[in-house]
Amino acid sequence: MKQKGSRVELLIHKLKLEDAGDYTCDTGDRQSSAALKVKALPVLFKQELQNVEAEEDGTAALSCEVTKPDAPVTWRKGSVGLHSSDKYEMRQKGCHVELLIHNLTLEDAGGYRCDSGDRQSSASLKVKALPVLFKQELQNREAEEGDTVTLLCQLTKADVPVEWRQGSAVLEAGDKYEMKQKGPCVELLIRRLGVEDTGDYTCFTRDHQTSAFLRVNGRKERLYK
C-alpha cells in the first residue's frame, strides 16, 4: 500500500487468476470499489513433443513441458480424444506432462497431439513389430495312401499370414489342400494322400520358418507290412 498526500495506492504483485475480483478502499466515512480482471497468460510449450519409436507389446512415453504448472491439457491420436485407461496413462507433475501408451500394437502407430487450449504440440509414434517365432514347430508325420493328414504348428502371435510349401512349390487352398488358422494355431490339411505327397513341408512367416517330413505309405507297402 502506498500513500502520498491525498493519493492512495494498492499494488498487487505476481498476479494470479484468483486475484480477480472486487477491491474496496475504505476511509471509515466513505468507500470506493473497483473490479480487477486478471487476463490469463497463454499456456505455451517450453519443450515440444518428440517423435518416439518403441517395440510391439512394450510401453511408449510421449512427454512435453508447458510454461504453467498443472495447466490442464488434453491428448489426441489423430482426431480421437484419449482418456485414462489401462491402455493410456496420463501423468502431470508441475510443468511436465506425459502420456504413456501400454501394451503397444502396430495399430498404435501414428500422430499424437497434446493440446493446452492455447497451443498444440504434435509427434509421431512408430511401433516396431516383434518377429513372429514358432512356439510349436511342425512335426514329422507318417500316413497311408488315400488318408487325410494334418500338419500343425503354433506361432507367438495370432492371425499372422503364413505361406505353405512342399519343397519349393507354393501350396494353394483347394480340394487337395486346406489351410486353417485360428489365433496363433496354423494347420495344413492334405486330402486324398498319394505317394507323390511324400516330402518336406514348410510353413513360412515373414521372419522364420519350420519344416517337417511327411511319409505316405502306398497300398503295396501296407500289404507287405
Structure description:
The chain has one helix spanning 219-224, and strands at 2-4, 7-9, 21-26, 31-36, 45-47, 52-55, 60-66, 74-77, 80-81, 88-93, 96-101, 110-115, 120-128, 134-136, 141-144, 149-155, 163-166, 169-170, 177-182, 185-190, 199-204, 209-217. The protein is mostly beta strands and 225 residues long. It folds into two domains: 45-128, Immunoglobulins (Immunoglobulin-like), CATH 2.60.40.10; 134-217, Immunoglobulins (Immunoglobulin-like, Sandwich), CATH 2.60.40. The strands form six sheets. The protein has a five-stranded mixed sheet, with no helix packed on it.
The percentage helix is under 10%
Portion of residues in beta strands equals over 45%
* CATH homologous superfamily grouping of the largest domain: Immunoglobulins
Based on secondary structure, the structural category is mainly beta
* Spatial arrangement of strands, main beta sheet: 6-13-12-8-9
Categorize the overall geometry: rod-shaped
**Uncertain spans:** none
The total tally of domains equals 2
Number of helices: 1
End-to-end gap: 114 Å
- CATH overall fold name of the largest domain: Immunoglobulin-like
| H-E string | EEEEEEEEEEEEEEEEEEEEEEH
Organism: Callorhinchus milii
Subcellular location: Cytoplasm
Pfam family, one: I-set
Keywords: Cytoplasm, Disulfide bond, Phosphoprotein
